[in-house]
Design a protein that fits this description.
about 375 residues, alpha/beta, eight-stranded mixed sheet, 14 helices, about 35% helix, three-stranded antiparallel sheet, 3 domains, 4Fe4S_Fe-S-bd, Aspartate Aminotransferase, domain 2, oxidoreductase activity, acting on CH or CH2 groups, with an iron-sulfur protein as acceptor, Nuclear Transport Factor 2, Chain: A, single chain
Length: about 375
């Protein structure tokens, strides 16, 4: 592991980028040098609240993906697993939960990581697009349509308006009123995706620069290659920058632990499951739950002759037994649940118990398989 500060030497990318445009420049290098067939990233559809995943094959189109989109909690791992074959070489930008999901898919042989460059994005959390608009209207007294960019920095959610003005509100104040980051983001304690080849962000960076943590040999070659072709400028961060980045990460983790303590005791799983209508939305949206055709829940012994889905307890029990130790806490299952069941919270709650027994964290631990699938299971 090593650190560099980096920024683009392309003026257009530099002006469009969030903090120096280093990520966009690295992606451009990969496409222009034909090291990948395409790039998976996010870009706005109608506005910054409606970003969507795109597959880019022409580096001229990368400029549209520059910047951060905290109102776009879209996961990309399941898209890659379903639609990209093992021979296609790609690069993908990943939040920590994206990376955790993809790591789990790699160890299940669903994604060939030899052909993937993982470009990590440090993440303080994401905001629901709908509540994000309401939040800006209520707390910033601004028209959500006038917002051209947003970022989370120094404990604040900051928006930039079309007239160049900036407004900031403390995340704590927003979340105390039920707004701010999504619930799973508030309790997430993985803020830097260190399983990615590089992890990038503005924590600890000088203005106009991206702080990059290089975590693999592939990551080092990425930075060196982009620098060699003249699209990236780098320098070594000083000790204060490294310390500042670590301080921000530790503050975010401390906030997450506090939120975990506040939320976990309040959940009674049996009461929550009773509302389940068996729509399978949580299963279908999960980036790690991939075996739809052979899903246990589709087996004949779960059918009762009327072709009704299994009972809520059976359905959720099967999912818990299969997925709770693999949950990356992305929160999408909770986002799509029509009955407002805190699915993600319950899964994460159980995974924390699993961690206490085994030390294994899904998508973070470097073990090839979780202990449940290893010889150690006999000791459990």
């Amino acid at each position: 592991m090593s650190y560099v500060l980096a920024k683009s030497k392309d003026d257009d990318i530099l002006s469009a980028g969030e903090c120096g445009g280093a990520i966009t420049s690295i992606l451009k290098y990969l496409l222009d040098e034909k090291l990948v067939d395409g790039i998976f990233a996010l870009r706005p559809f109608d506005d910054i609240y409606d970003a969507m995943p795109v597959f880019i094959t022409d580096s001229e189109d990368l400029i549209s993906t520059a910047g951060s989109y905290h109102c776009a909690p879209t996961m990309i791992g399941d898209i890659i697993e379903r639609f990209i074959d093992d021979d296609t070489k790609i690069a993908v930008t990943v939040k920590p939960c994206d990376m955790r999901a993809m790591h789990e898919l790699v160890i299940r042989h669903r994604i060939n990581d030899d052909n993937v460059y993982f470009i990590g994005l440090n993440c303080g959390g994401t905001v629901s697009p709908v509540s994000g608009r309401k939040m800006i209207d209520l707390f910033y007294e601004a028209d959500p349509n006038d917002v051209v960019s947003e970022e989370i920095d120094k404990g604040k959610f900051i928006i930039e308006l079309a007239d160049g003005g900036e407004e900031a509100v403390k995340i704590h104040d927003l979340e105390a009123e039920g707004y701010g980051r999504r619930n799973n983001c508030q309790r997430c304690d993985v803020k830097i995706p260190r399983m990615a080849d590089i992890a990038c962000g503005n924590w600890g960076a000088e203005d106009g620069w991206t702080f990059i943590e290089i975590n693999s040999e592939k990551g080092q070659k990425l930075v060196d290659g982009a620098k060699k072709v003249g699209i990236l400028e780098t320098k070594t961060p000083n000790d204060a920058a490294v310390e500042g980045r670590s301080k921000v990460e530790n503050i975010m983790i401390k906030m997450a632990k506090k939120n975990q303590d506040a939320t976990y005791p309040l959940v009674s799983e049996m009461d929550e499951w009773s509302r389940c209508i068996g729509c399978y939305a949580c299963r279908d949206i999960c980036p790690v739950c991939w075996c739809f055709e052979n899903c246990e829940l589709n087996k004949s012994y779960f059918k009762d002759g009327t072709n009704m889905p299994p009972s809520p307890i059976a359905f959720q029990g099967v999912r818990l037994s299969h997925m709770s130790f693999s949950c990356c806490d992305c929160g999408q299952c909770e986002d799509v649940c029509p009955m407002d069941i805190p699915v993600s919270l319950i899964f994460d709650k159980l995974q924390k118990k699993y961690y206490e027994r085994t030390g294994y964290v899904a998508g973070v631990s470097e073990d090839i398989k979780p202990p449940l699938y290893s010889p150690e299971k006999t000791e459990l």
